[in-house]
Amino acid sequence: MSAAGGRRPVGVAVAGFGWMGRVHTQAYARVLHHFPELPLAPELVAVADEVPGRAEEAAAQFGFATATRDWRELAANPGVQAVSITAPNFLHREIGVAMAQAGKHLWMEKPVGLTTDDARAVADTAVFVPERARPTTYQDQPVSTVRVGPGNGQYGAFQPGSAIAMGFDDLKVIEAWNFLRSIAEGTPHGTTLADAVRSAATLDAMASSAETGAWVKVANR
Q1: pLDDT of 167-203, one tens digit each?
Q2: Which domains can be identified in the chain, with CATH numbers?
């Protein structure tokens, strides 16, 4: 089965429809406008939120095929291939592990869990592609200055000229693009769960160092 333009459809679901769930959903809706070369077309299959009526409102506004208060139904839905996990942080480990065990692709908001152990639990459950793509110049922004002109790179997919600001929602569209092409190409683009584990370990070490006043070695894994 092919979506419009010969693209392969991929069923997506959103677990947690607070403001971040809304941003992810809008990114899925916009991604082909900015990156028409994508070989996948996201289809909004299901949305879950435990707040009464919220998932139904999301389905009515954005066109999700189904709505539920129980995120576990997303894991059991065979029409869902990819899941955005945008629930409260303390639920990320439980939902992430369940979705990985169900064989779903994961786009998880940070943090992956409340601790390094949480992040490792999700990472150890998920299946990874063996190679990581080289970072783009946009990911190098904290350590370098990148000047872009009209039509340059990812910026050019949004703005017709230079010196026009991009918003937070625009950056989430780029994340959606990286997520979907990772699925299509079988190689990761952007940050991965392995990066999330390293970030969590670094934060835990910083907290321990602040508490003890001593240097703390950060484990590689």
Answers
A1: 888 889 999 999 999 999 988 887 777 777 777 778 7
A2: 4-212 (3.40.50.720)
